[in-house]
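Deliverable D2.4 — example input (structure tokens):
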């Protein structure tokens, strides 16, 4: 799951919809009224209570949402983002160095940026690594790390306090250096290289065969088919993200018996997909048959050498050799054999 980009703590707080304002205001009250409800059941209950509000009551929450939106837009107009943040206060994504296998590495930093502070454990680990390695020459890297962790846990409170004091000093050093640090162009406030917004290479989309069967759907997808029209009727004009949130809450609030209905639909759809895929592959194979095996074998077989047969005119006549000692087979046309002498 992708991690959200960090935000500037001083950035304006985003506005909420009418339903979210109602949900936040009534959560504690509904929780106290229904102490045995799970999170999903409470969300479903809150959604049902909101749907039962009268038009006048809903209008009051819509008015609050409009006021909250006006507040957000006004604060955003006066907001000046610090270096490394966009106009809404979200941190600008930094370059991710790719190593072997396409794994993401650490973002590139300004070499002149302050060195980050370390925790008490990391300071202990760095200080004791060589000593532990000499004392345990046969340990692997992972075993040495576990051994170091175990040794740190065995420290007395007084010994741990020493390392924690060093960590506090290192943090004070880092904070002081960061306060005086001026990032160069192209770097954020922490010294990370800011992305240059290069246009990514367009991926060639694979053209799907229109005759291919439609993929099987999951149980949650079948649930959304039934629930989406109902939620949109309850909350006209609801945003797509909020719609997904409510559907997820209601899905989690279903009982196993209610979920089984959609799981059965998903199982039937999977059978349908497998049957259609078998027919599709059979039709595809029939439309493009492979060459006959005999033809392939004949084409691959080595050619036999040509056997030439001499005609009867070049056959050796014993009478010719008897009467003409200089006779050469194949040249009998030069001699006229007229019989015995």
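Example output (designed residues):
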């Amino acid at each position: 799951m992708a991690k959200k980009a960090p935000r500037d703590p001083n950035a304006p707080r985003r506005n909420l919809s009418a339903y979210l304002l109602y949900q936040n205001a009534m959560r504690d009250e509904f929780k106290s009224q229904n102490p045995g409800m799970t999170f999903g059941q409470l969300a479903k209950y809150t959604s049902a209570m909101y749907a039962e509000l009268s038009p006048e009551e809903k209008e009051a929450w819509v008015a609050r949402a409009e006021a909250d939106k006006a507040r957000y837009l006004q604060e955003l107009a006066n907001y000046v983002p610090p270096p490394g943040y966009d106009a809404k206060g979200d941190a600008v994504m930094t370059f991710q160095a790719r190593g072997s296998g396409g794994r993401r590495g650490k973002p590139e930093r300004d070499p002149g940026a302050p060195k980050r502070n370390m925790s008490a454990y990391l300071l202990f680990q760095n200080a004791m690594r060589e000593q532990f390695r000499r004392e345990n020459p046969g340990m692997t890297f992972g075993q040495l790390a576990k051994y170091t962790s175990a040794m740190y846990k065995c420290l007395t409170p007084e010994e741990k306090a020493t390392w924690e004091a060093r960590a506090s000093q290192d943090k004070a050093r880092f904070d002081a250096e960061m306060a005086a640090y001026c990032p160069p162009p192209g770097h954020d406030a922490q010294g990370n290289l800011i992305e240059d917004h290069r246009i990514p290479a367009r991926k060639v989309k694979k053209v799907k065969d229109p005759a291919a069967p439609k993929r099987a759907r999951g149980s949650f997808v079948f649930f959304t088919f039934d629930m989406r029209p109902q939620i949109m009727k309850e909350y006209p004009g609801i945003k797509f993200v909020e719609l997904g949130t409510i559907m997820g809450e209601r899905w989690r609030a279903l009982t196993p018996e209610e979920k089984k209905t959609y799981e059965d639909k998903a199982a039937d759809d999977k059978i349908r997909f497998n049957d259609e895929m078998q027919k599709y592959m059979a039709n595809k194979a029939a439309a493009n048959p492979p060459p006959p095996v005999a033809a392939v074998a004949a084409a691959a077989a080595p050619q036999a050498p040509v056997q030439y047969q001499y005609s009867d005119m070049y056959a050796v006549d014993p009478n010719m050799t008897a009467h003409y000692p200089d006779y050469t087979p194949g040249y009998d046309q030069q001699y006229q054999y007229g019989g015995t002498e």
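The two ends are 113 Å apart (CA to CA).
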